[in-house]
Hints:
eight-stranded mixed beta sheet; formyl-coa transferase, domain 3; Heat Shock Protein 90; 25 strands; Ribosomal Protein S5, domain 2; 608 residues; five-stranded mixed beta sheet; 19 helices; alpha+beta; 31% helix; 4 domains
Amino acid sequence: MSIIRVLPENICNKIAAGEVIERPASVVKELVENAIDAGADKIVVAIEDGGMKSIVVTDNGGGMDQDDAMLCIEPHATSKIHTDTDIFNIVTFGFRGEAIPSIAAISRFTLRTRRHESREGMEVLVHGGKAIAAAPKGCAPGTEIIVRDLFFNTPARKKFMRTRGTEEKHIQDTVMLLSLPYPAISFELHMDGRTVFSSPGHDTLSPRLTTYFGKEFAGAMLPVDYSDGEVTVTGYIARHGYTRTSRREQRIFVNGRPVEAPAVFNGIRNGYGSLVEKGRFAPVILFLRMPPAMVDVNVHPAKREVRFHNHRHIEHAVATAVAMVLQQSDAPTLSVDASLPLKALLQGAAVSYYPREEEPEFDFPATTESPSGRNESTADIYHVRVPAPESDSGGDEVYGAVFPATATGETAVAATFEHVGDLRIIGILDRTYILAEAANGLVVIDQHAAHERVLYERLLRASGTDHARQQLLLPLTMELSRPESMFVTNNHDTFLHLGFDLEPLGQNTILVNAIPASLHQNNAGGVIRDLLTDLIEHEAPGRTTDPAVIARAACIAAVKAHDPLTAEEAQSLLHQMAACELPFSCPHGRPTVINISLAELEKRFGRR
């Protein structure tokens, strides 16, 4: 008896749906793309309960007649491809013919459509892939598709959905992304009866940048317009110094399609060169146009990725376009109030300044560079006993040791000193490693990892308590993008427990009333923006005391590698480390301190 069998049509449709429809945002993407292909100049998206209860997409495009309305729910039915050669010259979005039947297979699906020249339209009802009814219907020209109870017949898929807020964020990102290449099309997004945004059609993209991402973002962008004959690169790139901790804001479009393409990302990085520090990413919105034969869009079921026939050509074109704009742009300038004291100006510029009579504290503006990757040390042993200073913890000693995989007990050497002040700082290597002399050897401290540990324990101890926050005398106003603003609104408690009191003030603006007591005020905006980017990227809201969330907050706020420290600041950092419960590793597990004993040095130099 044969063990191979042909699967029933309903199972095939559900498998196809699993490839194309990952979450409610996938439904929105497919339906909006179809509306764009239909020539609509107005598209309205309305959702309920994060898209799980209902998704409605309405457009005023060409619409369908009765025959096409019935055919479009059949698998592999499409108006975009007629011959096999068309596959290699794709100029539309929904060419596969899988979206409508895939969506209808896992929802209660309603289609209403009418061509502009027709007197009446057509309504088709499909439940779980089975056609229920089809009849003439009076409706407006264009197409309206209603998707209710998504995944009602695929509970295994449904249980993988995230929170309502997360699904709403994905839907908002999707609509915004699809609307960027088509500024002439009007887009509206409504969630549970409230208008998230309404972006009228315009002949340029500039108004949409301000609507979606705020005035600050729009003001930081430089226009791009470059062509090498075959490839045209247009759009916007960020000016010098305007960066993020994630590539999430590098939005790429190829022939109007939002995609991910390593060749383009490489071109952006090469175009900026040394202007963007390692671990930082300049926001861009780039539109690449090229002959369809130069790009294969048929390499991913959800059409997220593309493959170029000559990726080096694309990479070079993008790098050239970016570099030309940066070379022609002016360096950023800053106007300041002449009445401000010198110290305030220097601190705001992340310049350390201490009058001789003041007692320095290790508390200064954090920069926004991402931490480097794991650093492997060549030392054989990390073992330190640090008595905490009396002023910090009553003189209680703190012990700790970190041993590499190759270490034995035979090689363990303790660096012991009576007081943290007995460590004599002898220099700072590569503006990253604090070098100090102990009684029996050399102590090396990673300034970023050490400050991470200090801030992490402060935030962890103070998480959720009122005394963890310092109220700002003058609240800080920040303009965010629409997704960031929604994220703050939906996760107010998360930020409150971390010590940030963030109050929504309009659709794109928040008011910063308080920040963690352990952070400096001068760069609070940069820390909040980087923390937002990181939390959204990792989708980590919810449990407000989650150590991973607090660790990321500490990492973002901590002094970074290559940030210049004064000797006083370095000494203050050592005192604060001594007060930590676990001072010898950062929250991510990297060592903060290593010790190279005099005995080890003598052995290495052949003195033993």
